[in-house]
Amino acid sequence: MYTIGQLAKRFNISRSTLLYYDSIDVLKPSKRSKSNYRLYSEEKYERLAKIVSYREAGLPLKDINKIINCDNKGTEVLRQHVEKLNRDIRKIRCQQLMIIKLIEDNGLLKRLGFKRKKKWIKMLKDVSISDELADNLHRKLELDYPEEHQSFLEYLGLTKGEIDKIRGYYNK
């Protein structure tokens, strides 16, 4: 049997989190000691391990309860969560592109001092824009805004040869 303190330490969660899980029936203690301390069995330990894993994956407690208590609904709940994450990712990527476009439109690039290709690459990676997304951004700029794409590449300080090579690649 495990005490609430042992579980909290083992799973690096607060004691109050375990008390909350008890209050909402996500993780009830197996029994109480003579001193009225909550005690958790090995089965409850394993249940908490699942709860912690699902929480780390970003699932809300109500969905975790469904997954753990109803095996037949678990896959559907997880599928729905992945769909939500994909929607959130698409929304964030659109926001990133909008911000870049706003910076360009407002002439903020020069004022911000992003004059070098390496700084831009670092900035894009810092905001988690993958190589694939950067590739899609170049393709979209080249196809829909070729003059702006040319200006952007010039602004980065690329040589005419580098610009021609990049634009040629995306004009295929």
From TrEMBL:
An example Gene Ontology molecular-function term: DNA-binding transcription factor activity
User: Does the UniProt entry include the keyword DNA-binding?
Assistant: yes
Q: Which Gene3D superfamilies match?
A: 1.10.1660.10
Q: Which Pfam families match?
A: MerR_1
Q: Which InterPro entries match?
A: DNA-bd_dom_put_sf, MerR-type_HTH_dom, MerR_fam
Sorted alphabetically, the keyword list is: DNA-binding
HTH merR-type domain span: 1-70
Name the record gives this protein: MerR family transcriptional regulator
Database matches in SMART domains: HTH_MERR
